[in-house]
Structure formats: C-alpha cells, structure tokens
Design goal:
The complex is a heterodimer. By secondary structure, chain A is of the alpha+beta class. Chain A has a single domain, classed as Cytochrome-c3 Hydrogenase, chain B (Orthogonal Bundle). Chain A contains 15 helices and 14 strands. Chain A has helices at 43-46, 55-60, 67-82, 88-119, 124-130, 132-153, 173-177, 180-198, 241-244, 271-278, 284-292, 305-325, 375-394, 399-412, 417-420, and strands at residues 4-8, 18-25, 28-36, 162-163, 166-167, 213-216, 227-230, 235-236, 245-249, 256-260, 342-350, 353-361, 367-373, 426-430. In chain A, strands 1, 2, 3 and 14 form a four-stranded mixed β-sheet that branches. Chain A has a three-stranded antiparallel β-sheet with strand order 6-7-8, with helices on one face. Chain A has a three-stranded antiparallel β-sheet with strand order 11-12-13. In chain A, a hairpin with a 6-residue loop joins strand 9 and strand 10 (256-260). The longest helix of chain A is centred in the N-terminal third of the chain and has 32 residues, at 88-119. Chain A starts with a strand and ends with a strand. In chain A, 60% of the residues are buried. Chain B is α/β, with parallel strands linked by helices. Chain B has twelve helices and five strands. Chain B has a five-stranded parallel β-sheet with strand order 2-1-3-4-5. In chain B, helix 11 packs antiparallel against helix 12 (245-261). Chain B starts with a strand and ends with a helix. The chains are: A alpha+beta, B alpha/beta.
Chain lengths: 431, 262
C-alpha cells in the first residue's frame, strides 16, 4: 500500500467531461477531487443586456440533456420579477413538459448509462446483445419522453414552445390523445424496469449523515414550485436560497462547489433526495412499488439512486396520464406582461436536482444580471465526500478495480458536467 | 472486412448534439451494429485510441488545451464531421467574441486565474480541415444518420441549403411575419428543423445558421421598417450561430449603424 495516486482521466457515461483524482498517504485517503475540465461557457455574463425573452432559449443551451429544467427555472424567475401570475392550465402544461424530460432523462440514465455498471458491461449498446428486452424497453421509455417534448415543446432537444408567460402555442388535443396508448404501455414498462433494477446487487455502503435537499410542495411531488426542505428538518424559502446555499470556487474545477452556510457542510440534491423527502407525494403505483420492494426511507446508499429514478419514472408516467386524461386546456396559454424593473428567483427540480436561477431586469425588458446555480455543481462537494468514504471501504492494490468502483459511484449521481461548468477522469495519487 | 470505426469528441457545448445520436432510438441498435463505436465517452466506457474512420466533433474551441486536442483528432480521423452550431459556428458562447472575455470570467468566477480560456470561441474549421459540417442547435438526428450512412456507402453527404421559408410553405404554415408581423429569421436560415418555430406561432431564431446566399440586409431593413431597433435586429442574429460569417457581418453592420446614430 503506502502512498499512491489513482487517476481516472475521463469519466464515461456521464454528460460532459471530467476526471477523478485520488491521493493516498500511507494507505489512507488523503484527498479526492472531481476534476471538471469542461470549458466554461460564461452564460451568466453573456445574458447581460439581452432581452429577457431570450433567457429560456439561451439558458436551455447550457444543457442538451435537461433543457426543460433551464427553461422552467428561467421563466419562473423572470415571471417573479415581472409579477406575472400564470394560470392553472399553464402550470399543468409545464408539469407535463417537465415529466417528459424526467422520463427521457431517467430512462436514458437507468438503462443505457447506469445499468451496465451492475451487469458488467462497458455500455448499454453492448448490454443490448445479452439484455435485448431491457435495452429495447429503455429506448422505448426514453422515446416516450421525447415524444411528449416534441408534441408540447416542438422538439426533444432545446424545445421551442416555452416562453415567459406560458407557451407560444397550445398543442392540439388529438396530438396529446394519440400518445395515451403508448404511455399506458410505458407505465407498465416503468413498473417492470423498477422491479428489475431493485433486484440488482447493491454494494453495502451508507453515507454518513448525508444532508438531502429538495424542493417541497404541500400538495404535489416537487417540480416547478415550493420551498426547499432538507433531511435535517429545516425549510428554506426560495428568496433565501443564496443566503443558505453558497457557491465557492476551487482550483481543480471549472464548476463552483456548494456548501450550506448554516452547517458549513455539503448537501445532496437529486432523485434520492427527492424520494427521501417526498415519498408520501409519489403517485399511487410508485408508492405501492416502493412498499413491495421494501424501500427504506431515508435511503443513504447512493448506488440505489437508480431505484429512486425508477420510482420517479413511474410517478412521471402516472402524472402525465392523469393530465392527458383530464380536460384539455382551453384558451389563452400565454399571460401578457408589461416591463418593469425588478429581481426574480426560482428553483425547479431538474432530473439531477434543484436548479436555481435569479435575474435582475430593467424597465426596458433587458437582463441586467443573471445568476444560475446548477444541480451537479451543488452536488460536487458531497460527491467528493462520499467518494472519500467509499474509497476507504473498497481500496485494494488493484488500481483498475479501485478506479472502476470509484467511477461506478460517481455515475450513480448522474452528474451533468456540461451543466455544472460552470466534470469526470479518475486519478489515484499515493504520495 | 472489419466494420468502420466511429468516435465522438466533445469540446465547449451542451452535449445535445451527441444526445441526438442516442435519441435515434429506432435506429440506434442498427447503427451500432453496422459500425464499431470505439470512442463515445457519453455512452460507453470503452475508449480506444485512433485512427478512426469517422470522428464526430461537437463543440467549439475555447481553451488552449482544446486548440491542441483538435489537432490530434484531425490526425486520427479519416473523416472529421463537425456536429452542431458550436462546432460549425462557435455556438452561443461565441457571444464573448464581441465582449471582454477577461471581464466575463471575473463576472462568473471569484478566481478566474485558476481557469485558462481563449478570448474567442471559434468553430472547428478555423483550426483544422473539416470534411463535412452538420448544422443545427441541436442537429437533426435523421440528418446525422444520413451523413453516417452516406460516408459508409462511400458517397459525399449532402444536406439541403434552402431556407426555412420553403419548409413553411411545404408544411402549409401561414407566414408569421406576413400574417402577424412577428420577426422571423426564416428567410435567411438554413432548413433542417422542418420549420418548427413558425408552426408553434413564433419566429425562427436561426438554429441552423445562414442559408445559401441569405439576403440579410433586406431582412434587417424589413424588421427596422416594421419598428424594430437596430440593436433588436442585431440581437436576433446574435444567437447560436452569431459567429457564422453572414450573421456576424450583418449584426456588426447593424451595431455600427446604431452607434453612429447614437
């Protein structure tokens, strides 16, 4: 043993680019760094001076995997600044769009990116030879998410229909209705997939005292609005987000690290946090399946996030079906507004966790200041802390095996590095 | 005969264009069967070094390291195909080419010295020769599959260069500019998206970059006569393809004009 470094130059099956560096001193973990070398794109700076209407389309380009999240947080924040109230119909359609993104993103991550780790494959594509039914099911689930995004958003990647105030156009009832038979099949498939992943063999690993944080709403599973809740039991209003969650810059990353000011410690966002804090708000079938598989809440094993994604996948299907079977929205789906200077904040739940936006606007409708806090950069410090604990448990003389296990853990968070640049290779240093 | 090899590389970008490949759900397994995907970090832990038959490159060049990295990829690739607005035109991050990048860095990072960036975001073709440029923000997955199939068949890939206007006519979409006075980049923007935006009751915002021989001055004049300011008209061109030559020159002309008037 002794001193050595373990490096993973390029973390794979994650969105965006980064690496991992681990330094061991006398056989003990000395330092763990997620190295994010995704080049910065400086969105907050280039939004200044732009018409506020540009924000949903420009910020969508931060991430091709979760553009809807960027569109949702930006329009809600700008509507707060403009004091625009949206109708219940618009609110429902926004949840529908978000469900589409959750289905696409969770379907992709569960089947093509994460499942290969449990079954010993390099990729979902290679897994397809031995598990054709599961991979084809995953592709079909992913496609349902994309179809919803296409009908309501115009296209799956960087949808065009979202605007400040609502939507440019209300899709036709028939275009929604013809999705229902496929979505009914999809709900059953989501239940099967979640049963399937729940039977995987999970490493015996529990994170010490992890602080889970997500949006919380009294009446629904968190998505577009609410307050921040944590597993420590406290509540933070969105207006106080930046007072509690602080971003710090570290030399090894183009992403900013986040900690909670009240504890000085990192925290974790995402599906595991959401399910831990909102299990009672899941849809009926998701709740029932959680009971059947004996899901314990809170769950402190990050490897099991794939099961949390499955529960959310089921929830998303049920919510979509409920909305589509309900009354089709009528009339105006775009609220008018007048320009006024002001400041607005919003947090919504991206597939990977809470995404916070704040804008200052002037009375001519221009963006004066933009502040964006993506989920993966908030999770980075917690991921490093979890890795430190994990490496202590799994370290061996087999460098490749140690690096592979580190990568497995990192993938369980579904990090989105493109977003956070503002992430993955694994290096282990035994100095 | 062994199957042709394909590798995917990422530079400054959102990952959306390579996601388009994974989004081709119905063809994905067939494509993966016909070619050997040897380097696609977003989808696979299998990472082999070159040479590659086809290299798909997403993203723009924004750091000194990336300016070096693209040179090796060019040496390793038989065909280098750039995918998306970032790789073909510099992307939305090329807006900094008109700003002060050092100031932008200070606005986002407390200690910008930790991070090395170039002043400009530039397309791949400014650094190495490119065999085919596939436009779009995001690219159209059908066009991507077509380009890969053409190369496999030994044919030169082709994508239409006509404007979005023609696609609106084909779809039977009523012109949003003529009927509602909504500003639209359709007349000067290349086809590829099937004219989605006008069918959603909004103007085209230029995702596929300049069409063949775009008459930009005419379109700007129309917008300004309809009551838009030069700055508004310039902002419309300064989107995901802002640094594509025709859009860049026209937005610059409009900005200069606005400044002279002021």
């Amino acid at each position: 043993m002794g001193n050595r470094t373990i490096k993973v130059e390029t973390l794979t099956r994650v969105e965006g680019e980064g690496g991992l560096y681990v330094r061991l001193k006398s056989g003990a973990v000395d330092e763990v760094r997620l190295e994010i070398y995704e080049p910065p794109r400086l969105f907050e700076a280039l939004l200044r001076g732009r018409p506020l209407e540009d924000a949903p389309d420009i910020t969508a380009r931060i991430c091709g995997i979760c553009p809807v999240a960027y569109q949702m947080s930006s329009v809600h924040a700008l509507e707060a600044a403009l004091e625009v109230k949206i109708s219940p119909e618009i609110r429902r359609l926004r949840r529908l769009l978000y469900c589409g993104e959750w289905i696409e993103s969770h379907g992709l991550h569960m089947h093509l990116l994460h499942a290969p780790d449990f079954l010993g494959f390099d990729s979902g594509l290679e897994m397809a030879k031995q598990f054709p039914e599961e991979i084809n099911r995953g592709l079909r689930l992913k496609k349902h998410g994309n179809q919803l995004l296409e009908v309501l958003g115009g296209r799956a990647i960087h949808p065009v229909n979202v605007c400040v105030g609502g939507f440019y156009r209300l899709p036709k009832r028939d275009d929604f209705q013809k999705l229902i038979p496929d979505l009914e099949w999809g709900l059953q498939a989501a239940l099967e997939t979640t049963h399937w992943v729940a039977r995987f063999e999970y490493p015996d690993f529990e994170v010490n005292a992890c602080d889970y944080v997500s949006l919380w709403h009294p009446d629904e599973y968190p998505m577009n609005e609410g307050v921040m809740k944590s597993s420590r039991g406290d509540t933070i209003d969105i207006a106080d987000y930046e007072q509690e969650f602080e971003e710090r810059q570290v030399p090894h990353s183009t992403a900013l690290h986040a900690i909670r000011k009240s504890t000085g410690k990192p925290y974790l966002l995402g599906p595991l946090a959401r399910v831990n804090l909102n299990r009672d708000k899941l849809s009926e079938s998701a709740k029932q399946l959680a009971d059947e598989i004996g899901w314990e809440t809170p769950c402190y094993n990050p490897h099991k996030a794939i099961i949390a994604r499955g529960l959310e996948l089921i929830h998303a299907y049920e919510e979509v079906l409920m909305i589509l079977r309900g009354e089709h929205p009528r009339g105006n789906v775009r609220e008018a507004y007048d320009y006024q200077s002001g400041e607005g904040r919003a947090a919504t739940e991206a597939p990977r966790g809470t995404l916070y936006h704040r804008y200052v606007i002037d009375d001519e409708g221009k963006i004066v200041e933009a502040h964006i806090v993506p989920p993966t950069s908030q999770n980075q410090a917690q991921i490093e802390s979890d890795l430190k604990q994990w490496i202590g448990q799994i370290i061996s003389d087999n460098e490749a095996e140690t690096a592979r296990k580190c990568e497995n853990l990192v993938r369980s968070y579904d990090p989105c590095i493109s977003c956070s640049t503002h992430f993955l290779k694994v290096k282990i240093d035994r100095s | 005969m062994s199957k042709p090899t394909l590798a995917v590389f990422k530079f400054a970008s959102c990952d959306g264009c390579q996601l388009a490949l994974l989004d081709a759900e119905d063809q994905l397994l067939a494509v993966a069967g016909a070619i050997n995907i040897v380097n696609f970090p977003e989808a696979s832990s299998r990472m082999e070094s070159g040479p590659y038959d086809i290299a798909l490159v997403e993203g723009s060049i924004t750091t000194p390291r990336d300016a070096e990295r693209i040179q090796q990829i060019r040496r390793d690739a038989r065909y280098l195909i750039t995918i998306g607005a970032c790789a073909t035109a510099g992307g939305i991050q090329a807006l900094r080419n008109w700003g002060d990048t050092a100031e932008f860095m200070r606005a986002v990072y407390a200690t910008p010295e930790y991070i090395q960036v170039l002043d400009n975001s530039t397309p791949i073709a400014e650094h190495v020769s490119v065999d085919f440029e596939l436009r779009g923000c995001p690219i159209n997955q059908h066009q991507l599959i077509e380009v890969i199939q053409s190369l496999l068949a030994g044919q030169v890939p082709r994508t239409p260069r006509h404007s979005v206007c023609l696609d609106c006519k084909r779809r039977g979409t009523v012109c949003v500019t003529v009927a509602q006075g909504i500003a639209c980049l359709g007349p000067v923007t290349q086809s590829g998206c099937h004219a989605i935006c006008p069918s959603y009751n909004r103007g085209c915002y230029g995702c596929y970059g300049p069409a063949a021989q775009p008459n930009l001055i005419s379109l700007s004049t129309h917008a300004i006569n309809a009551g838009d300011s030069g700055t508004q008209t310039a902002h419309r061109l300064r989107n995901f393809n802002a640094y594509a030559t025709p859009f860049r020159e026209e937005s610059q002309r409009l900005k200069n004009q606005s400044e002279e008037e002021a």
